């Protein structure tokens, strides 16, 4: 919707929307104490069963329980060169949506990380 509205308001402007991978340090302290709630709420027994089955961290959320994941500090944007190039060409670039997709490098390859990037923190990468 954001991209559509920009295009509607600026029909002659190039507007580009891209998925953005955010690098994180696997040694970030956030991985030791996950705090970001995701997904539905559960009753205690169901939460415990799911935590055991999927190796999730579960924490109380009011009277219920939720899965929590780390929210590490992003260290960079994989697509930064593409973003810079598009901006230099006059594009309005929409990126780091929702904070971006958390990844780390393992054996020279990008690997997804079960975490959430705080959308406000992606601005500092």
Automatic annotation (TrEMBL):
EC number, UniProt record: 2.7.2.2
Q: Transmembrane stretches, by residue range?
A: none
- Protein origin, superkingdom: Bacteria
Q: Does the keyword Transferase apply?
A: yes
Q: What are the recorded GO MF terms, alphabetically?
A: carbamate kinase activity
**A GO BP annotation:** L-arginine deiminase pathway
Q: Does the keyword Chloroplast apply?
A: no
Name the GO cellular-component terms.
cytosol
The top EC class, named as a word, is: transferase
Q: Which InterPro entries match?
A: AceGlu_kinase-like_sf, Carb_kinase
* Keywords assigned by UniProt, alphabetized: Kinase, Transferase
The protein, known as: Carbamate kinase
Q: Which organism is it from?
A: Vibrio maritimus
């Amino acid at each position: 919707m954001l991209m559509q509205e920009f295009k509607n308001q600026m029909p002659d402007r190039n507007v580009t929307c891209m998925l953005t991978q955010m690098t994180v340090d696997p040694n970030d302290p956030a991985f030791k104490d996950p705090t970001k709630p995701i997904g539905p709420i559960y009753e205690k027994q169901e939460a415990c069963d799911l935590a055991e089955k999927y190796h999730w961290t579960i924490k109380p959320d009011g009277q219920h329980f939720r899965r929590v994941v780390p929210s590490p500090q992003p260290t960079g944007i994989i697509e930064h060169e593409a973003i810079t190039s598009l901006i230099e060409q006059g594009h309005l670039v929409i990126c780091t949506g929702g904070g971006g997709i958390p990844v780390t490098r393992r054996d020279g390859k990008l690997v997804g990380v079960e975490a959430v990037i705080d959308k406000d923190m992606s601005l500092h990468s």
